[in-house]
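Trying the structure run again after the queue cleared.
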Amino acid sequence: MTIRVVEPGLLTTVQDRGRWGHQALGVPVAGAMDEVSHQLANLLVGNQPDCATLEVTLVGPTLEFLAETTFAVVGAEFELWLDAAPTPTNTPRQAGRGSRLRFGRRGGGARAYLALAGGIDVPPVLGSRSTDLASGLGGLGGRPLRGGDQLRVGQGAGPRVSCVPPAAPVTLPEGGATVRVLPGPDADRFDPRAMEVFGQARFTLGPESNRMGYRLRGPSLELVRTDPVLSSATPVGTVQVPPSGQPILLMADRQTTGGYATIATVISADLPVAGQLAPGDWIAFEVCERRTAVAALIALEQALMGRR
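Done. Tokens:
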């Protein structure tokens, strides 16, 4: 069973939960920018959470189903049409052979996830089907989808849920979002007022922001120590500050290590919200305690478990 790409959209890639276990070799993780929406889309069609989906960014594709299949779209709010009929998001739908799914105008959020019963079946690379655009690994030749591409769909989907409940775990940003952070390890490198400025300001995602990271524009975070920083691991959500003082928020396709000073890290529970931001959106940071971060992650996981 296959689907054919009629129009690819702005940036449509194959993603799963990422290429873990190879960071020591310099291999980026990649994976879905909003892992919660990715998991929920899989849940709706009976897939395991790590099945590959299509990540649709800002402008969606038009796809033709070459066999009957079940699909679901979760995440950013897009107008959807199955052939000539409007079709809802957050609900499993049946598509017949020859039907076309078209993404229209976008509302809140930046990225939607299209799951197909059985998952997108491209060859795994180092244990993952995720597309890493920077290194050209995974997905379909390590690149975004193009018109005329065909993708195989796997077999073996299981029980489905009827819909995503109205109180979905991820609140879609409309123009911007506030995310919680834990202070980073390099506090001694910053002016004492830098953390206060960081926690009070709104930053704007620059036009060059992408899956690797968001370049943020706002007040400068002054460094008082500019001697070289020993390179260290870069978890997703790391907020680095280069000598310019303009922070960079590292995302799914981030490099495995970095040598800029780290002022903070976005907590795991708020990463899906960060993953739904687009260039031109604003972002603000709220410093929290570790116990708050742990409680928020537990609440998020419990919400997901309640839908399985």
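The chain has two domains: 2-152, 176-305. Worth checking whether this holds up in the mutant runs.
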